[in-house]
Amino acid sequence: MLQPVELSLEDMGDLAGIIPAKDPVVKAHYAPIPRFGEETRQSIIPVCEPTLAGNELAYVQQAVETNWISSAGSFIRDFEKQFAGACGVRYGIACANGTVALHLALATLGLQPGDEVIIPTFTMIATINAVTYCGATPVLADNEPHYWQMDPADVAAKITPRTKAIVPVHIYGHPVDMDPLLELGRQHGIAIIEDAAESHGAEYKGRRTGGLGDAATFSFYGNKILTTGEGGMVTTDNEEIARLAWNLRDHAFSSERHFWHKYVGFNYRMTNLQAAVGLGQVEQLEKFVAMRRANAAYYSELLADVPGITTPPEAPWAKNVYWMYGILVDEAAYGMNRDSLRVALAEKGIETRTFFIPMHCQPVYWQQFKGQRFPVAEALCRDGFYLPSATSLTRQQIERVAEVIRVVSQ
After folding, report:
1. pLDDT digit string (tens) for 110-127?
2. Are strands 384-387 and 325-329 parallel, antiparallel or unpaired?
């Protein structure tokens, strides 16, 4: 039987100090009603929830009524076309989730054992797992401190003759500085596969993420800006990558005859029901992005003068879509650490999430990267967490969150 990889904090040495505490229990908050003095129960503010405010239900009903509920049907094609167009590329390949989208894109490159793929250590574990699924070797790079994204200088230092791909991850909705990475790709013949799971609608120098590298991958999990519940997409302008991805997604059936396979393929298909929801979502992309940016601006306005709180950055060349509104907590200046602030918010019915734990600190990859250090990623993990970030947040909810942060450490 498969056994877990155990790793105690004692085994981690000084890295144990960056590992977050367990999530606090979020409690319903009771507050006085103005003018009456009575207590009323306020609902919990979740860290994120989907916004299903368009044609999603109508499209799902149409899929059911026409009996097209599996992996064929017009909503698959329409969703692929509309989402690819929103990214500024010709091809979209819908699939089961964001992790398999990344695996699918990497698989089209024909990676072999011994090939290396450079990824940021500060990312969600799906990124490194997709590289591992291909049998390739993940190589970790640090993030830069200004915008919390993959550091192109560290990537350049990690390139070897075995490097076959670079996977920049647009963390929390802010794009990576792509031009230096694209230039490295051209110089060394290295593929650039964007992990754009968190960056629906984000822009780099006026161009959408999802259309910057050789291919890109997206997640449509329930907490993403656009959701299909579960789901993913590969986007590309490369006809050969698109052809291979479409084929590999569907067991690599051959056009010559049925049940005839020339590749080891996968069953990574999306259903027409999911695509129906996705089409209803992508029709609202511009509105959702505007709402996220407005919410972020209001958070930043309310938190701007709180000592010890760093609000999320936005580069002059970027359009941040604030998939999650993340902050950093300087314990000395603020008066309490990140974990204590999360407990205080949870006591007031406010759900939060810590930043990612870097890949070199994960039990399952600990031995592979033991001894390697990444100071920026470690600092982000130690000090960072994100606040409720749903598209549908109200100004009153944002005010409630900001008020707790403003007063709790005083």
Report:
1. 999 999 999 999 999 999
2. antiparallel
